[in-house]
Specification:
Structural class: alpha/beta
Distance between the termini: 48 Å
Radius of gyration: 23 Å
Oligomer: single chain
Number of domains: 3
Number of strands: 5
CATH superfamily of the largest domain: Response regulator
Strand content: 5-15%
Largest sheet: 5 strands, parallel
Shape: elongated
Order of helices and strands: HHHHHHHHEHEHEHEEH
């Protein structure tokens, strides 16, 4: 099998990575094109002692680190959640951004990433941690909890605070929830469905969303009330009893893609 045939299946993924790294399809494709031109010009210099995909990304990084095809991440050709994600990644400094994308997006091991960017595995892990910390700092938010069970409310509050967010209030009824939301508009709402006075968390959320846009995560023992197929269903729905890790992941995901917390 020729070198071109070995590399061909990996090119779409390299283009995806290049776009995420540069924040632009045009700039990303320019780097990929330069990478392929370098391989064609000097095939004997292509790394032969590693997996072809690893060698392809290694060559790409040599081009990336030595060329100036663009001045920095520029957001073009994206909209919605992709644009928000690009905005966040663009705020990261180059090495942490590379380490995060290569591990989280491309699935390379920390040892592979160390080979690609010329660092040891401990340094790569530190860069990934730095990148995640930067993103967490970007997505700090005020959170309204709508939950009438005190123990569950306390547990959710602890999870929220552990992630570095501020809890504005814990509401136990629809009326409380709407009042607290209007008093200090939160950046995220965590809502149960069945509330203390037999009012509905669904109705509370509808009232809040009628006033302003905010991401909502429903945490409920009655998911069937939301998964009806008859109306738009929530993006984030967690069933009780819940795992703390599930709630943490949902909060991070909801805020990562929220336009209100996107970097300017």
């Amino acid at each position: 099998m020729s070198l071109g045939q070995q590399l061909h299946p990996h090119l779409p993924f390299l283009r995806r990575y290049a776009r995420a790294l540069t924040g632009s399809q045009a700039h990303g494709d320019a780097y990929v094109r330069a990478t392929l031109e370098a391989i064609v010009a000097a095939p004997d210099e292509f790394p032969s002692n590693v997996d072809p995909r690893l060698g392809l990304y290694k060559t790409f990084h040599a081009i990336w680190s030595s060329s100036h095809l663009e001045d920095g991440p520029v957001l073009t050709g994206a909209d919605g959640q992709e644009a928000i994600a690009q905005a966040r990644l663009a705020r990261l400094t180059p090495l942490p951004r590379q380490a995060l994308l290569l591990t989280a997006l491309e699935g390379f091991t920390v040892d592979d990433v160390g080979y690609l960017i010329g660092l040891d595995s401990d340094d790569v892990e530190a860069l990934v941690k730095e990148a995640l910390s930067e993103i967490e700092a970007q997505t700090r938010a005020k959170v309204l909890i709508i939950e009438d069970e005190p123990i569950i409310a306390m547990d959710i509050e602890t999870i929220v605070r552990d992630l570095g967010h501020e809890v504005t209030a814990i509401a136990v009824t629809r009326e409380d929830a709407v009042r607290e939301a209007m008093a200090e508009r939160p950046g995220l709402v965590l809502a149960d469905i069945q509330l203390a006075d037999d009012s509905s968390g669904i109705d509370a959320v509808k009232d809040i969303l009628a006033e302003f846009s905010v991401p909502v995560i429903f945490i409920t023992a009655f998911p069937e009330r939301l998964l009806t197929g008859e109306r738009p269903e929530p993006t984030f729905l967690i069933t009780k009893p819940f795992q703390r890790s599930t709630v943490k992941a949902a909060i991070s995901q909801a805020l990562f893609f929220d336009e209100a917390t996107a970097p300017a």
